[in-house]
Write a structure and sequence with these properties.
alpha+beta, 10 strands, elongated, 6 helices
Length: 352
């Protein structure tokens, strides 16, 4: 019974999550955006599936967190119910003691016989009053116990039904989340295959326009990816680089939207070489930022970009040991002029 009550409030959360996800358009049936043929459709599909997977994960986590809160509420409710059960048990014990005491004091005579054998009217009245009070207490206790048991049975039945609904919705939500993630993984693999072919040929496929999200940004500078884990840092050593690491790596899955960190102009889009597919932007003040190892680009050379605009998708092209974004801040558009990108962004209000 306790596990039933602990999950009662999780049902509406998962129902809302399922409704939100079920209402989202299926990526495979959406028309591709600007771009060329299947390449554009695949990049757009990865971007859409990326967002859908993020929504599914957020809703799934929201349900899990609500379940944790509900467990606390259910535990407090169980403590109250336990208190009620102890109170009823105490009443039963008290009634038992009263009955036993009456039996011992009366020599085993029924209460009615004691009243008949009373020696005086006063004793008779006292006996009648005691009998009436005892009878009332017994009836009240029995009625109270029956009501409590009826409420308990109703609550248990309701909790059982809600738990069954919760299990069903939770299974559906988990299956929907897994289906989106499987589609995303397949699309990511295809996107990376196309990117590798472009790098091997040394020629980019051209920009693939993506539907830009509503950012609602109020700052002039942002991180190059929205959700990430920092990996190789600026200046670190290792066998992967000829000298020292020239940028900051962001560990993200293939197909993750890459954002322009600030307003600027695209001065370079290239494929091939150690950086694989890369984009270089020029910003005010003579600084440049580089975004490397991409799987696709969403801008063309000479184009102006805004803060937070999606300019490409992360990948693992070029000299890369796994999916990530290599980000640099430079004083020229060329390699070898980088500065610490973490402190460079921090000076512009972006803390990584």
């Amino acid at each position: 019974m306790r596990s039933y009550r602990r999950h009662r409030l999780l049902v509406p959360v998962l129902l809302c999550a399922l409704a939100v996800l079920a209402a989202r358009p299926t990526a495979a049936h959406k028309e591709p955006g600007n771009g060329t043929g299947g390449d554009a459709g695949l990049s757009a599909e990865v971007a859409r599936l990326y967002e859908e997977a993020a929504v599914a994960t957020q809703q799934y986590e929201a349900g899990r967190q609500e379940a944790e809160k509900q467990r606390g509420r259910a535990q407090r409710a169980e403590e109250l119910l336990d208190g009620q059960r102890r109170h009823i048990a105490a009443l039963h014990e008290d009634l038992g003691r009263i009955a036993r005491a009456q039996y011992r004091s009366s020599g085993g005579l029924p209460v009615a016989a004691q009243l008949i054998l009373a020696d005086s009217p006063d004793e008779l009245m006292r006996g009648q009053h005691a009998f009436s009070q005892t009878n009332l207490a017994v009836n009240n206790a029995i009625s109270k116990n029956r009501r409590a048991e009826a409420r308990l049975a109703a609550d248990e039945a309701k909790a059982a039904a809600q738990w069954q609904a919760l299990e069903k919705r939770n299974t559906q939500l988990a299956a929907l989340k897994a289906d989106i993630e499987q589609k995303l993984e397949t699309a990511r693999s295809q996107l990376q295959g196309q990117a590798d072919a472009s790098v091997a040929a040394g020629a980019c496929r051209g920009s693939v326009r993506l539907d830009q999200p509503e950012t609602g940004l109020t700052t002039a500078w942002v991180a190059p990816v929205e959700t990430y884990e920092l990996s190789a840092s600026y200046g670190s050593g290792g066998t992967r680089w000829s000298s020292r690491h020239t940028g900051q790596d962001f560990a993200v899955p293939i197909g993750t939207p890459v954002r322009a960190v600030g307003a600027g102009r695209v001065v370079k889009v290239s494929c091939g070489g150690a950086f694989g597919i890369e984009i270089v932007l020029r910003h005010a003040g003579g600084y440049y930022t580089q975004y490397a190892h991409l799987a696709s680009v969403a801008v063309d050379q000479g184009e102006h970009v805004e803060p937070g605009q999606w300019i490409g998708q992360s990948g693992t092209t070029g000299n890369s040991t796994g999916p990530h974004l290599h980000f640099e801040a430079r004083v020229t558009p060329d390699m070898g002029s980088s500065v610490n990108p973490v402190s460079w962004l921090a000076a512009r209000g972006v803390s990584l």
